[in-house]
Design goal:
This protein is 46% helix and 15% strand. Helix 2 runs parallel beside helix 10, helix 3 packs parallel to helix 4 and helix 4 runs parallel beside helix 5. The longest helix is centred in the last third of the chain and has 18 residues.
Length: 210
């Protein structure tokens, strides 16, 4: 799965309010050559959207985001999520995901966070919030002492089309989390063409940099 994430390069981070929008969203992303999404648990529809996409769009890589509790980790797995992501590091959530057989990317921001995650066997981590935490320079600094341990990052929060190439150039970056591709407002408005276009633009940047 990490090879797939690296080839895709960008993971749209999506807070979707109504499950009826799940398939139009998926089709817009697929048409934009970006068949992947992190569906967050920030809305009541999140779990159902993951279930719909995992069942109806099997060629799409679907993850769960904002997974904050052990129960949410188990629910994400039951809904068919291929991976799960959290904004922070909670050992209980990591362990629940591991017990469920769900690849889990805890959020980290400091060397101490990274080492705590390593202690539980995590190698793929979410660098969050990437921009406020120091952006590319901080990510490069975090990479240096841990790259030989196989640590890889998914920077999210402050990644934009303007700095996407810079993040992709960091050797430890598997993919970035992109909130600009499919915003809640654009989904609510049914702007599927806009989502497709932003996905295609992001995919083109990845292709030019990898």
């Amino acid at each position: 799965m990490q090879d797939t994430l690296r080839s895709l390069g960008v993971v749209p981070v999506v807070a979707i309010e109504d499950a009826k929008d799940a398939l139009p969203l998926a089709d817009a992303l697929i048409a934009g050559n970006l068949p992947v999404a992190e569906i967050t648990f920030r809305t009541a529809a999140g779990a159902e959207v993951i279930r719909i996409l995992s069942q109806s769009r099997p060629d799409m890589l679907v993850g769960a985001g904002t997974v904050l509790t052990p129960d949410q980790a188990r629910e994400a797995k039951a809904c068919g999520a291929a991976f799960a992501v959290a904004p922070g590091f909670n050992p209980r959530v990591v362990q629940a995901a591991q017990e469920a057989g769900l690849p889990f990317f805890p959020g980290v921001m400091t060397p101490s966070d990274v080492e705590a995650a390593l202690e539980l066997g995590c190698r793929q981590m979410k660098f969050f919030p990437a921009g406020p935490a120091g952006g590319v320079k901080m990510l490069q600094a975090l990479t240096a002492p841990y790259a030989h341990m196989g640590v890889r990052f998914m920077p999210t929060g402050g990644v934009t089309p303007a700095n996407l190439s810079e993040y992709l150039a960091v050797s430890s970056v598997t993919a970035v989390g992109g909130t600009w591709i499919a915003t809640t407002a654009s989904i609510r408005e049914g702007d599927w063409d806009g989502i497709r276009q932003r996905a295609a633009e992001a995919a083109a940047v990845v292709a030019a940099n990898r």
